[in-house]
Amino acid sequence: MANRILIVGLDGVTFRIIKPLVSKGKLPTFSNLMKNGIHGILSSTVPPITAPAWTSFTTGKNPGKHGLFHFTTFKKNSYDHSLVNATLIKSKTMFRLASEAGKRVISINVPITYPPEQLNGIVVSGMLSPINATFTHPASLSQELRDDGYIIDMLNQPLIEPEQRFDLAKKMAAKRLEVSSRILSENNWDLAMLVFVGADRLQHNIWDRMDLLREFYIYQDSLLAKLLEIVDDSTYIMFMSDHGFTPTKAAFFVNQWLANEGYLKKHYWRVAPPLMIGDLIGTEQRTLKFRVKNVIKNIVAHLTRGKLLDYPQISINYKKSKAFANPSEIIFINLKGREASGKIEPGEEYEKIKREIAEKLKKLTDPQTGEKILEDAIIKDDMYSGEYFDKAPDIGLVPKEDGYALVGMRPHHSYIRRDFRMKSFHSMNGIFLLSGQDIIKDKECETLQMVDCMPTVLHILGVPIPEDVDGRVLKNLFIEGSQLRIKEPERQGPSQISGREFEKALDEDERLMEEQLKGLGYLT
């Protein structure tokens, strides 16, 4: 009998919260899976951001091969961005490879799967799917799900209280379980994957409400128990997350540091504080009371100085900058021939400034505490390879556990802010759990790499693995002497593709998706 596997993606879920709750008996589903299988840390991509991480999971490749480095990509001959989508992924995913091998696949809410591929099975696209688009295969399922109250993702709603946000996350997760259970029960499948995103959305916004976060993890565990009731004991089960989460003590304004070091120049303009509508209804992740108080404080401060019409706003002056972070976790050298107004010559000048900035960032410390700000700053040569290497950011920033949120610009010279709204940030440490008949039981394994998951899944399914993947089959997870441990993985030719054509999202849909990303702190 052929193997089948159910993958449950839990966006942003972290062992920091799971393990203490497991030790108290609060997460029986996680506890059972850990006892009956193997678990460990799953290291994310650099940066540990949804778009490149999930895509590396599904393709088994580093971003230099699949082409997605963040949520956005530069428009041609411009410093403006457009949002990424599945047509920009330059490699076949595990779903397509399994489908081509004759397997039945189900993909529900996996990020960056819009527009949905026409596979041998069912696809319900996930994060960055336009609300008004056809987000499913078959197409008829889209309206059916809308009529049923299905929620693709939580929209940016900055004015709501933590308890309201918690209730919305529960509602979204419950509907995801209901729809997924129905689809899995009513259809034959060999490879199924569904992704829950509620924990990530809450952790971005209410890390200081750990009571609610713990309650959500407990609620999510109960949903996972119901989900596992519909699969038999012969099904392999994988739980994983694309990155972890960590509390932060302050914010590191990357572009401000670049400006202080002479690598970046700014544009300034001034408006009155009352006109800063974003302070009231923008991406601030606190209550309305908090934001009104903040606006009043700004107005009073400017009136005291007699400068009501003197509120600074800042953007990057790209024409005069040598380097910039956009988005804030990745740094680009303003390279001639690549950037629209490139300033740095390719070759020796480029290599010098790239390595110089990286070395400075590796040693950078908090001026008040003396603590290192970053875990690492890695040049592209040491983290990317492949056809899209030239388009890759030049430096990737690796955040520390219990460290600093990475953000963009601020209107004065200090690059550290301790009262910043973001109290948590992505960490490199995602989670991995795998159980099944040939899987080692009750053991914690060494840290695994994101790209290793896809070839391991294909090996379990008996699907040949493309020769150009970066990942390896994790044979050490299988019991000594088992068929999956003994058998050599089958191979096939490269899985690189040129991408797909699709109709662009409506402007309003794209605006809503950008607002969501701003609300989560991904874009500024």
Any guess at the CATH architecture of the largest domain?
3-Layer(aba) Sandwich
* Biggest sheet record: 10 strands, mixed
Q: How many runs of DSSP E, i.e. beta strands? A: 25
**Unreliable sequence segments:** 272-287, 307-311
Mean pLDDT metric: 89
Lay out the secondary structure:
Blueprint: E1 5-10, H1 15-23, H2 28-35, E2 37-43, H3 50-59, H4 63-66, E3 72-74, E4 81-83, H5 94-100, E5 105-110, E6 121-125, E7 136-137, H6 140-147, H7 162-186, E8 191-196, H8 198-206, H9 210-228, E9 236-240, E10 244-247, E11 250-253, H10 254-260, E12 266-271, H11 278-281, H12 288-304, E13 311-316, E14 323-325, E15 330-333, H13 348-363, E16 374-379, E17 395-399, E18 404-407, E19 416-417, E20 424-427, E21 429-435, E22 443-444, E23 448-449, H14 453-461, E24 465-466, H15 483-486, E25 491-492, H16 507-519
Parallel strand pairs: 1-8, 1-9, 2-22, 2-23, 5-6, 5-8, 11-18, 24-25
Antiparallel strand pairs: 2-21, 3-4, 6-7, 9-21, 10-20, 11-19, 12-13, 14-15, 15-17, 16-17
Helix pairs in contact: 7-8, 7-9, 8-9
Question: How does this structure look, described?
Answer:
The protein is an alpha/beta fold and 524 residues long. The chain has two domains: 5-247 and 426-519, Alkaline Phosphatase, subunit A (3-Layer(aba) Sandwich); 250-424, no CATH class. The chain contains 16 helices and 25 strands. The strands form seven sheets. Strands 1, 2, 5, 6, 7, 8, 9, 21, 22 and 23 form a ten-stranded mixed beta sheet that branches. It is globular and about 65 Å long. The protein starts with a strand and ends in a 5-residue tail after the last helix.
